[in-house]
Amino acid sequence: MSEHNSTELPLEETVWTQKVSWIDKVPRSVGIAMVLGAFLFLWWFLSTSGLVPSIILPTPMETLDDLIFVTENVLRGDYIASSLWTTMRTIFFGYLLAIVIGFGLGVLVGETGFGERSVMPLLVGLDTMPKVAFAPLFVAWLGFGIASKVALATFIATFPIIVGTAAGMHSADQNARMLFQSMGASRWQTLWKMKLPTGLPQIFTGLKIGAVGVMAGAITGEFIGGGKGVGELVRLAATQLDTPRVFSLIIYLSVIGMLLYALVVWVQRWIVFWKKEQVLANP
Amino acid sequence: MHQAATAAHTSMHHSETVYELTNVGKTYGKDVVALENVSIALHKGSFSAVIGSSGCGKSTLLNIMAGLIPPSKGRVVLQDKPVLGPRDDIGMMFQQATLFPWRTTIENIVLPIEIRDGRTAAENAKSRAKELIELVGLKGFKDAYPSQLSGGMAQRASICRMLITDPAVLLLDEPFSAVDELTRDFMNMELQRICLDCNATTFLVTHSIPEAVILSDVVYIMAPRPGHVAEVVEIDLSRPRNLDMITTPRFSEIVHHIRARLDDEAGQ
Questions:
Q1: Angle of helix A79-111 versus helix A230-239 axis, rounded to 10
Q2: Which of A125, A256, B128, B199 has a CA that sits 20 to 30 A from residue A62's CA?
Q3: From the list B68, B85, B96, which residue is nearest A175 (CB)?
Q4: What CATH code is assigned to A60-278?
């Protein structure tokens, strides 16, 4: 029997490879370059082929030319630079206010039965309203200056921060609550040493959604309320059918948006160091 | 076995009673009786377990003993003082290790001190924490974060956190039910070693009959509707226990008796 086995069984190793589709093997950087390249080609093709008039869609080259003009203007500290500065200040103050108000209300709603029963339903009701519709009201109340834009930006960015904070306050499990109760911890200690740290990932999710909202609020505020910000420049360029200018201003705005988002992600990595792998998985 | 049961209280009367519950009852709302007439006495240095199916009031009993919820009837007395809320002479351990991921192992262990006496006291308690870390076999992991610990190691750390306040009684709520079976057997033997080392008075809630028998001096069998103690079984296996005892006839006999009793109660 053993002789039979030793002669009949193949002696080669039975190593084999699982099939992986080529598209899943493309490295990340190559993949991003490919998608970007395809997008630029499609843009170039549509704008140069005559299918779309250049007054509606400028060519990538026209946009690049204008982007260089805008960049020179910004570097000289000319009027586009001061518009960017105005919009960035609106975003800064709007986000700061949204964080303070959103975090405060979130803790109130998440921590107290009163907040959950009496404040949360009102907040949910407010949140379902189209918040942009309040913009004319803010202009009427606060004027055409930066304050009415800050108000709208804050108004839009606050709700996700409230919801994130309130959800975070509820994320601690039953065991952790019982442990703190059995140690005789005060409400304050339970909040600072357990509920808030446990809820930080959700709080940062709210902050990231709020960072997107504060951009939208600031620009919308400038569309509707005029003033000196980038939103007003975008509106002017669009009425003059200067589409390359609209495109290059949008590119500048998206860079500001990405920088703000990246800043929040960086702070999250630094503070919530025990959950590094989930930082990019969140919205 | 029934003689053994009645002897449970008398045979250990030589050591002092640390924790005593007398005719304790708990009613939720108007007429949901979770617990009725439960009397339990834990003697210094003894290991007791309560076993029963889900809904027999085990958790209610444990929460009353921990001072987390008030009883509706009866007396609950720990070290001659009535239990009227959470106390620092009670140590607790849960199914999950419940370590906080932003704290290192040693910072997690001194947390009860930090809560009770503040940061300076917690800093001073670290030398005691180091001794406990060595006692449970976690040497070299004091500055590790919980994500670097296995399930069994995390539970060892939570044992240290329970012991750091030198509690008079340890309340364990199915402490190793979340770790795998092999680790669980091993951890149970470790638990026995640690409890004998500290002469701890321990009360364990469990679903596992073999676990209750191998660890305990006394097993309380609980039955539902309403939750009450159906029988008290004294385990006369010698100490220290080891896993080989599981194969002895005496062990099987006790396990069989408890299982039959639980089946009876479930059938009623």
A1: 120
A2: A256
A3: B96
A4: 1.10.3720.10
